[in-house]
Amino acid sequence: MSRHDIRHLLDPLTARPVAANEARALLADARHLVETTTADDEALLDAAVLIHESLPATQHEAEPWCLLAEIAYKLGYLSGDDYEPDAVALSLSILERALTMAPGHLESRALRADVLMLARRYKEGAAALDGLDPNHWRAASALARLTEVTRNPLTYRTALRSMVKHAPATRRPTLLNSAGSRLAEVGRYDEALEMLDECLALEPTFAWAWHSKARILAMLGRRGEALALVERAMTHGRFGAAAQLHAWLLTQPELPPRTQILEARCASCSAAVVGGRCPCEARETVSLTPREIQSFRRKPCPSCGFEVLGFATKCAACHARV
After folding, report:
1. pLDDT band at residue 274, thresholds of 50, 70 and 90?
2. Is 309 helix (H, G, I), strand (E, B) or coil?
3. Cα angle value 85/28/177 (rounded, 5°)
4. CA torsion, ordered 173, 136, 34, 245, to nearest 10 deg
5. How confident is the model at residue 2 (pLDDT cuts 50, 70, 90)?
6. Which residues are 288's β-sheet partners?
7. For the whole model, what pTM was predicted?
8. What is the distance between the alpha carbons of residues 243 and 305, in angstroms, rounded to a whole number?
9. Longest CA–CA separation in the chain, Å
10. Measured between alpha carbons, how far is 202 from 259 in angstroms, rounded to an integer?
11. What is the CA radius of gyration of the chain?
12. HSE on the CB side for 189, CA within 13 Å?
């Protein structure tokens, strides 16, 4: 089980009786903590306690259970996209209770899809997305996790941008940090830095965002700037990742700064387009980073066997439909 077990907070009978208006205030305070917290376990535990105190009056609604489910998996965070399996399983079981109370509760349905993706149960997660508005911020988050695995960087970027665009204002800083960090992993450095700049304008003391921006600048060879930002991260929150990045940067030599590299590809056949129209006569192009090109799934042309990128609708060699 997660190092922070909240199962004892799931029983409404262990909470004192509470008036409806007080329960609403407790739930609102808990929601604010959950929406504005990223990696602060103490804040998440405080939120769980507040929700538990509200349960005598709110236990027949979906919202408190949905919030507890989010807390459960976040408390099981390990690193990257890895979470403790027991914490994820607890989150899914709590969501079953939420959806029993209100089968159509949008937040609970979208969260279930997202947690199923975290659990690497992708077929179930994709099925859970069926019928959800793809522009709902959490449904977009789940779709981003799915397209990362199915290796479709175009849909991945679209989903991340939709997640940020449609998120509640209270969640925007944490989601900007998450999306920016993930876009950098596919070589979208300029877009990632823009998101992190917006994040830090909203939340200047957000240590993880300073760390994320420092990592990207380090990837681009901008060592001096990265060192300054990771030191800023360490002043706002002392955590191991920042200290490790700081120590690593101190050992690196100064190198010429790199820029983001984009390559034009035909939107129809995925062939590289240099200085004009593609030989297949299509006019539209898409700009991809080398990492995006490398990560795309390939598919063979049924006519000649030539492999094209997954978004192609015609073969780059024989121009047949694929």
Report:
1. confident
2. strand
3. 55
4. -40
5. low
6. 263
7. 0.90
8. 50
9. 73
10. 26
11. 23
12. 19
Which tokens hold the place of 223?
């060592």
The encoded tokens of residue 81 equal 């996209």
- Tokens encoding 302: 């049924």
pLDDT in tens, 113-166: 999 999 999 999 999 999 999 899 999 999 999 999 999 999 999 999 999 999
pLDDT of residue 275: 78
pLDDT at 7: 95
Half-sphere exposure for 179 (CA within 13 Å, toward CB): 33
What whole-number distance in Å separates Cα of residue 300 and Cα of residue 322? 8
Structure tokens of 62?
A: 């979906």
What does the block give as tokens for 78?
């390990």
Residue 4 near residue 90, CB atoms below 8 Å = no
Q: Where are the beta strands (DSSP E) in the chain?
A: 77-79, 82-83, 263-266, 285-288, 298-300, 307-309
Show Cβ contacts of residue 71 under 8 Å, excluding neighbours closer than 6 positions.
6, 34, 44, 45, 47, 48, 51
